[in-house]
Amino acid sequence: DAEITQSPRHKITETGRQVTLACHQTWNHNNMFWYRQDLGHGLRLIHYSYGVHDTNKGEVSDGYSVSRSNTEDLPLTLESAASSQTSVYFCASSGIQKAEAFFGQGTRLTVV
Amino acid sequence: GNSVTQMEGPVTLSEEAFLTINCTYTATGYPSLFWYVQYPGEGLQLLLKATKADDKGSNKGFEATYRKETTSFHLEKGSVQVSDSAVYFCALSGGSEKLVFGKGTKLTVNP
Known about the structure:
The complex is a heterodimer of chains A (112) and B (111). Chain A is built from no helices and 11 strands. Chain A is mainly beta. In chain B, 0% of the residues lie in helices and 51% in strands. Chain B is built from no helices and 12 strands. In chain B, strand 7 and strand 8 (62-65) form a beta hairpin. The radius of gyration of chain B is 13 Å and the shape is globular. Chain B starts with a strand and ends with a strand. The model of chain B has no long low-confidence stretch (mean pLDDT 93). Chains A and B meet through strand 4, strand 5, strand 9 and strand 10 of A and strand 5 and strand 6 of B.
């Protein structure tokens, strides 16, 4: 069965370190998204991609970057981790326009 | 831009009670509308969807009707169970492929 997987599921890192969260989907979807989930804010879009070599900033993109070198993967990099980036991160993918998105299980990141 | 507003929680109900979670949206054109559910410690799962006006999405006893005249997509269930305890998110997808989410409503169902 097709799926979308995130790794690691849990990560603790120190302030200032570079961190990369992986997202891999086997749906062959063109569209991939990164969200963060925080109490009181719901889900906020960080970055998204509509295809290989395409990346776009979402509403909370400062301090994050993504690259899309193939259809399956959209890694999220925190250039210099900050305590404000402690959150749960979700990756999602979708196919055709206006279709539903499928979500990974999430990565809980703690920056100490 | 597109936006979704859903009722703030938390919502606490007794088993077999009727559930309504309100959701209204602002969007240009004709978006698709969704309800997602998140169980503790898990990712979001699609609960139901509707792609055009007057469509009714349904799944697991939950229903929502796409009302363009009131720009609403309220979630309802006639008789909730303890296992329905979760966080529910209303979302829309408009002209771009991006999903826009409401802030979520936490539901707790007591036996």
